[in-house]
Write a structure and sequence with these properties.
Helices cover 9% and strands 66% of the residues. It is mainly beta. Strands 1-2-3-6-7-8-9-11 form an eight-stranded antiparallel barrel. The longest helix has 19 residues. The model has no long low-confidence stretch (mean pLDDT 84).
Length: 217
């Protein structure tokens, strides 16, 4: 919720600044096809919580689809500043260990409030542009379909770079195609017990293909 408030407040500030400076604001909606990969490490501590009994490492990747919305303001004909927000969560597939046994475990992770503040740079190649941004997302590990151990969520952030093409249709309406790549910092959470289970998600990378419809004013 905190990041939602920040995103909305920043968007309102961006729009207000755009109108007050008499520069050109834009709003847009996007469909995204994305892929993410990471390495997860699970550490199970002893009863006293002083040492690690077992450690398990798993590497995984998954594809997902989601929508996003953005607000953008052009500073001049070359540079624009924008804020992109994904209002829905998305989740990794479940990784199953000890399948069909009494101690079967299902592990997944949920991503919430993916938000990116970015700068868009038009280059002299038709409607081609470059993008560089800073993204933040909440990650919540889940075990046994969310009914087992309970973990807190942790925020992670990192840089995003992209390349896109903007085609103007008419009356301030444009269509954009874009590809981007992201890298995020490691996150670490535990289930809050003395003999805790601690999960570290690291080496998080992502790629994203985006189709957007934009209205400029």
């Amino acid at each position: 919720m905190k990041k939602i408030i920040i995103a909305i407040s920043s968007a309102m500030l961006l729009a207000t600044s755009a109108y007050s400076m008499d520069i050109r604001p834009s709003i847009g909606i996007s469909g995204n096809l994305a892929g993410y990969a990471a390495t997860g490490t699970e550490e199970n501590f002893n009863e006293a919580g002083t040492a690690v009994d077992t450690t398990t490492d798993e590497h995984g990747a998954f594809a997902t689809e989601y929508g996003s919305i953005f607000l953008e303001a052009s500073i001049n004909d070359v540079i624009s500043i924008g804020l992109d927000y994904v209002p829905q969560d998305f989740e990794t597939p479940q990784n199953v260990s000890q399948e069909n046994e009494s101690n079967e475990k299902k592990v997944s992770a949920r991503f919430d409030d993916l938000t990116t503040l970015y700068a868009k740079l038009n280059v002299p190649l038709g409607g081609t542009y470059l993008k560089v941004g800073y993204s933040e997302v909440d990650i919540t590990p889940r075990t046994n379909g969310g009914s087992g151990n309970t973990y807190g969520s942790a925020s992670t952030n990192g840089f995003t770079v992209g390349l896109g093409y903007n085609h103007e249709v008419s009356n301030g309406v444009s269509v954009r195609l874009e590809v981007s790549a992201s890298e995020f910092d490691d996150v670490k959470v535990n289930n809050g017990q003395t003999n805790k289970t601690q999960i570290t998600v690291k080496d998080i990378i992502g790629a994203r293909g985006t189709l957007s419809i934009v209205k400029s004013f």
